[in-house]
Every structure is written in C-alpha cells, then in structure tokens.
Specification:
Layout (H helix, E strand, L loop, with lengths): L2 H7 L8 H24 L4 H12 L12 H20 L3 H6 L1 H25 L4 H10 L5 H10 L6 H28 L6 H36 L4 H19 L4 H13 L4 H25 L3 H4 L2 H22 L9 H7 L4 H13 L5 H26 L13 H8 L19
Helix pairs in contact: 2-3, 2-13, 3-13, 4-12, 4-13, 6-7, 6-9, 6-15, 7-9, 7-17, 8-9, 8-18, 8-19, 9-10, 9-16, 9-17, 10-11, 10-12, 11-12, 11-13, 13-19, 15-16, 15-18, 16-18, 17-18
Length: about 425
C-alpha cells in the first residue's frame, strides 16, 4: 500500500476502520465509473473498465483495494446476486421455444466444445482435475448482455441469426449455472463421480423448475398486492426480498445462491411490474456490480500473468474460447443463414466467466497465474467481439434497425458502443429455416 494512502485510510486510534472502508469504496466506485465510461467511449463494454479499475487499485499497482476485505467481499457478493437476478429478470423462457432447435444446437455445441477444449488444455499444462474443471467451466458461458447489445447496435438482433444467438445465450447461461453448481459442489469437497455430478445438476435444475412452478402461483398475486399499497419503492424492495430469500433457499437446499437469484428473476419476468423492478434493481446494481468486477480485477497478480506458463495458458484458452464458439455457430447444418455471424456473436464471456473464475480463486483451486490466464481470456474475448461483428455484419437488413430491449442488464454489464438508433423495440418472432 502506498504511504499516502496508508496515512489517509488508516484506522482511527482505538476505533473502527470505517473511514478507511468508506475511502476505499469511494476510490473503487470513482475509478470504476471513470474507466467504465472511457471503455464506452472506445466502443467497449463498461465491465472491462471496471475490471481494469480493480487491477489498478489492487496489490499489483496501487495497493488501495484489498480483495480480502470482509465488508467489501460482502458487497461484492451482493453485486453478483443483483447481476444474476437481472439476467433472470430479462430472460424469456419462451424464447427458447421460439428460436427452435437451431438455438438449442448452437447452445449445446457452444458448451461442449469450449468445455472439452479448455479441460484438455488445462490438463496438458499440468493442472489438477479440479483446476481443469473450473478452467473449462469458465469457457462455457456467453454474455447475453454484451451479445444482445452489439447485435442490437448493428441492427441484427431481430434477424434469424440474432434470435438464434439470443436463445443460445440464454441456454448457455442456464446450463452454465448448472455447471457452476456442479463445480461448486466439487470445490466444497464432493467427489467427482457420475452419481455426484448428476445429483448436483438435478438439484440445480430441480430448484429452477420448482421455483418457476411455485413462483407462477405466488409472484403475480404478491406483486399485485404490493402495487396496491402505492408506497414508493415497495415494488423494488419486495422484488429484492424475493430474490434474496430465493437465493438463501437455494443455498440451504445444496445449490448455489446465484442459481436462486437467477430463478427469482425468471419468476418475476412474467409479472406486469417487471420494468419497474428492473429500474429499481439497476439503480442498486450501479453501486454493487462495479464493486464485484473491481474486486475480481484486484485479485489479478500482474507478476504472475507475465510468467511464461501463464502467458501460454492464456493464449491457448483464448484460441479454444474463440474457436469453440465459432464452430458452434456452424452446428445447425440445416440453417441457411450466416453461421459465422452466429458463432462470433457467441464469443464474449463477460460476467459469467468472471464469476466462475472468482469462485475458483476463492476456493484455492486456481493459482494466481491460472486465474490471470482466465481473466485474460474473458477480457480478450469480450474485446474481440464488437469489432469482429462490425466487420462481418455489414449494413442491417431493411426493417431490422433496433437497439434491443435488455435495458437493465445492458446498463449493468454491456454499456457498449452507443446505440445507432434511439428507438427501443420488442423482439419479434423469428422465421427459422
């Protein structure tokens, strides 16, 4: 820690170090907002600037942000729950039916190919089975917020290709969360057996299905009753209570808290108050979600990244991450549209990959060099996608100029290139071939 910061942010004599915490939190929020805004100015998602803010404030550079500080860790965990709640809130289960088998095929291939490739690469460099599983899991996700924003900016979201990407990304997020629960069980000490993996996966899927079934009877009457109260903020607070309770129940039943938060979002997606809930939670997310991304960045050890082994692993993971998703775009052989566009749009890992990486580091399953390699993969894949899509997409088809409708998640994660059109439209039913 630098001398000036130690003098300013040191604890008061005989008292708590609450002033130090406030100063650190102020530094995190200010730096994350500044660098996130700069990232947007160059057409990149704000999350990359927030990650960089964490790296600069962490021990590798300024030494201002301690990623192990308990209070900031709690705020970071709350940020993750808000983020996954937003993902669920903006996920339409019916979209999986609307885009048909093409999205399911792309999504399945987009999980299997990167996971297998990542596991093989990790084992080849000498990683343990557990470490290889976590590294492979980080390669499976697709950032629906980033993909949807970029496609919307290019006027491609309502095309057949855009709808396939959206449906496949939703599928990848759902299955990715199941993989997260399975790997989380392994990290907690569960044995890697077919029965154990099946049990953990069934618990995760069963919880989401159960939440959807029960929530269908509870959510609408609950939100309707709260709306009649007409108390300012009551809808948003009730939604957060619902999300936190659901997350806690998921943890108590042996699943992951983020699966509970995701399931709560899925349930509330169908309520008439969804947009009000979205606005309220997004406002809270503007404070908590950057703390999570900055805490992830603060755990990056730049000295470990520049080692030859970490550089090799990072480069190999980037190749597998990009190649696996691009190949997945060609999986639905019957689809006559632009498969390369689909594959490239599936490339960004974004927030879900970061959550996986942080889990592995916190559990001690990822060394600093391996963690840095994974972060490099997430950052590079996210950086690559906007310019690549812009290069291959071309002008939007007639009648397909749109900016998407993922406002809350877009604000918290993407905030990519400025939208080309100001209108906000709903997603049309695609015509699959």
């Amino acid at each position: 820690m630098t001398a000036w910061w130690a003098a300013l942010a040191g604890p008061l004599s005989g008292g708590p170090d609450f002033p130090a915490l406030l100063l650190t939190l102020a530094a995190v929020l200010a730096c994350a907002r500044l660098l996130g805004g700069l990232a947007r100015r160059i057409g990149q998602p704000a999350v990359l600037g927030e990650l960089l803010a964490g790296v600069l404030l962490g021990g590798s550079v300024l030494g201002v942000l301690d990623p192990h500080e308990p209070v900031l860790h709690v705020l970071s965990e709350l940020g993750v729950l808000i983020l996954l709640f937003e993902v669920g809130l903006e996920t339409d289960i019916q979209a999986l039916h609307r885009v048909g088998g093409a999205a399911l095929t792309v999504g399945t291939a987009g999980i299997v190919l990167p996971f297998a490739g990542g596991y093989i690469v990790a084992v080849a460099v000498g990683a343990s089975t557990l470490t290889a599983l976590i590294i492979a899991a980080t390669l499976t996700a697709t950032s629906i917020g980033i993909s949807a924003r970029v496609l919307g900016d290019l006027g491609r979201l309502k095309t057949d290709e855009g709808q396939i990407v959206l449906g496949a990304a939703v599928f990848d997020d759902v299955i990715g969360l199941v993989i997260f629960a399975v790997v989380g069980g392994v990290v907690a000490g569960a044995q890697i057996t077919a029965l154990g993996v099946a049990r953990t996966g069934l618990v995760a899927i069963g919880f989401v299905v159960g939440a959807l079934v029960i929530g269908a009877f509870v959510a609408r009457p609950l939100m309707a009753a709260v709306t009649r109260i007409r108390a300012k903020g009551a809808v948003g607070v009730t939604a957060l209570v619902f999300a936190f309770v659901t997350a806690a129940l998921a943890a108590k039943l042996g699943s992951a808290m983020i699966i509970g938060a995701f399931a709560a979002g899925l349930v509330l997606h169908a309520t008439p108050q969804r947009h009000e809930i979205e606005q309220w939670t997004t406002s809270l997310g503007h404070v908590l979600v950057p703390v999570f991304f900055a805490m992830v960045g603060a755990q990056v050890d730049l000295r470990a990244i520049v080692s030859s082994s970490a550089l090799f692993l990072g480069a190999a993971l980037i190749v597998v991450a990009v190649g696996g998703k691009v190949m997945a775009g060609y999986a639905p052989w019957w689809f006559k549209g632009r498969k390369l566009l689909v594959g490239v749009a599936m490339v960004p890992r974004g927030e879900v990959g970061l959550i996986f990486a942080q889990m592995g580091l916190a559990a001690g399953a990822l060394a600093s060099g391996e963690f840095g390699a994974v972060i490099a993969m997430v950052v590079v894949t996210t950086f690559l996608t906007p310019p690549l899509l812009n290069a291959i997409a071309g002008p939007p088809p007639d009648g397909h100029g749109d900016g998407g409708d993922l406002s809350g998640l877009n604000e918290l994660v993407s905030e990519g290139a400025p939208a080309q059109t100001p209108e906000r439209t709903t997603i049309a039913r695609p015509k699959l071939r």
